[in-house]
Amino acid sequence: MRLEDVWLRYHRRGPWVLRGAEVRIDPGDVAVVLGRNGAGKSTLLQLAAGVLRPSRGRVVDRPAAVAWVPERFPADQPFTVGAYLTAMGRVAGLGAPVADRAVRHWVDRLGLARFHGVRLPELSKGTAQKVGLAQAMLRPPGLLVLDEPWEGLDAAARELVPEVIGEVLADGGAVLVSDHRGETVRLPGARQWTVADGTVTEQAPSEGAAVAVVELAVPAARVAAAVARLRADGHHVLRVRDHAAPPPATRPAGPSADLVPPSAARPDPGPAADSVAPSAALPEPGTPAGTTLSPTGRPEPGPAVDAGIASAGDPMAGVPSPVEPAPVALDGHAPADQAPEVAR
């Protein structure tokens, strides 16, 4: 499928949302659409799916079977989950027995069985999104278009999305997906389309780039500083959430237990270097477990404030942990051109 010199604006005299878009996606390809809020990502996806028509230009070679999953499923409809999915299967051209089997398969796979008789307006956003994904997959698509598909889903369903994408690709379909949560790190080799200032550009993924999603706990009072520091170091902070209670003061064995800023990195020539971030300071031999390290890797008392991580005192040394406010977890992932600088 190709977008050839595609322009779009929503009103006759309104501003152009997209100008001269020229992109192509082939069978077996997955492309991630990136860009800030309001840049035109959803507009591009709707053009690809056929929901919108270009003001100028054209979309050619669109597959006959297109599955479209919007960011927010339109749940304000007078149907139960089962009745809606069955009707949508028939609209997609499936015979009654085939539609019934497809509905049962996706209801079971997405954990919707207990909602089969529930009316759509009564569903939570996450459950409604599952219904939207089930509807899209009732007929195997030649093009699957997903607008923020991970939004509102539970952990099990988030893990299922890359699996579904992989199945579409394996069957020779193409996939377009937008994402602001960083979940598309689960799609290695995906092409990247960036929408900015009305234009669409493609950036090939870096070969061998290593990325990871990590969680980091810091004292609540230091959240702003920690977020600013992570972003300044080139990391993408996905979200900030509160913990009801501090995580246990434990640390895994090995050299990745204590973290320091990138400027204090000390390379480790030993075999363990491949398993830790290159910026992690390594303890001297004989250092007790739980000891905070200075940027040089030597023990020093007190929390590792400069590293942005609250460290517990070493109970073996009789040093109690400082009392801090309830920590906040920051979910983020390392940029593609760097190895992760924090360990989970």
**CATH architecture grouping of the largest domain:** 3-Layer(aba) Sandwich
Alpha-carbon distance between the two ends:
40 Å
Q: Are there runs of 5+ residues with pLDDT below 50, and where?
A: 253-344
In CATH terms, the superfamily of the largest domain is P-loop containing nucleotide triphosphate hydrolases
- Helicity, in percent? 10-25%
Structural class by sheet pairing and helices: alpha/beta
Our estimate of the beta-strand percent is 15-25%
Text of the CATH class of the largest domain: Alpha Beta
Using the CA coordinates, give the radius of gyration. Answer: 24 Å
Order of helices and strands: EEEHEEHHHEHEEEEHEE
- At the fold tier of CATH, the topology name of the largest domain is Rossmann fold
Number of domains: 2
Shape: globular
Q: How many helical elements?
A: 6
| Arithmetic mean of pLDDT | 75
Write up this protein:
Helix 5 (155-170) links the parallel strand 6 (143-147) and strand 7 (174-178). The protein has helices spanning 41-49, 81-91, 96-109, 125-137, 155-170, 223-232, and strands at 2-8, 18-24, 30-34, 56-60, 66-69, 143-147, 174-178, 191-196, 199-203, 213-219, 236-242, 327-333. It has 6 helices and 12 strands. The radius of gyration is 24 Å and the shape is globular. By secondary structure, it is α/β, with parallel strands linked by helices. The strands form 3 sheets. Strands 5-6-7-3-8-9 form a 6-stranded mixed beta sheet, with helices on both faces.
